[in-house]
């Protein structure tokens, strides 16, 4: 297994300091959040500074595209076109930064009672196809993240992968919200490892999206990594809600320990508890 490890920058985190933290602790890259101070209208004038900092410290880059107020799955054509155009502009910035990958949320804020499931799904698929091609033309790999309770959560993201060529970003906390325990997440990895090229790693104590430092919750990351084939190559981002460099350093250590444990252990059946895709949090209370 050949994995590069990085972390997602958080709101309020200075980009120069993030690069320094990555270098000081031995991360391979930073995943720059392109929202807030990282949105293109604010970051673009300073992109040369960030690019220089990355080069000076030998740190690579991926990006997380903005979400929330941007709706690439809107059933309204003008809204959807505007959202895609804004995401394309952020992909231009990603390419300028030398980003290898860009994470996108394949979802919508469409009013559920007014718009049927098929219409919403078709709109998201159309936007993802367009963005995937746009990113590829700029040397950036688009990765679609599973969004809990969204049109393409972990229980339905297979449809998006079957209808597009986009790669997947698997978010462990989001998968827990979907009701998957370690076995359920491992089963998804085993099924879709050929399309999963990126992970958002965050720990939880239950079926929630807490974004705890790695090791602060109950996720068995070694078990998840064992579900990947030996020749898997990809990126692992610690998406931890902290600006404390110490927690980021600790998270890197725990990810490396989990990778080592996964490689050292004998292969075993990943289709254990929760392999159907849902199930309880068997670790809680143990």
TrEMBL record:
This is Sugar phosphate isomerase/epimerase family protein. Keywords: Isomerase. The keyword tRNA processing does not apply. One of its GO terms (molecular function) is isomerase activity. Residues 274-286 have a biased composition (Gly residues). It holds the Pfam family AP_endonuc_2. PANTHER family: HYDROXYPYRUVATE ISOMERASE, XYLOSE ISOMERASE-LIKE TIM BARREL DOMAIN-CONTAINING PROTEIN. Residues 258-286 are annotated as: Disordered. Transmembrane segments: none annotated.
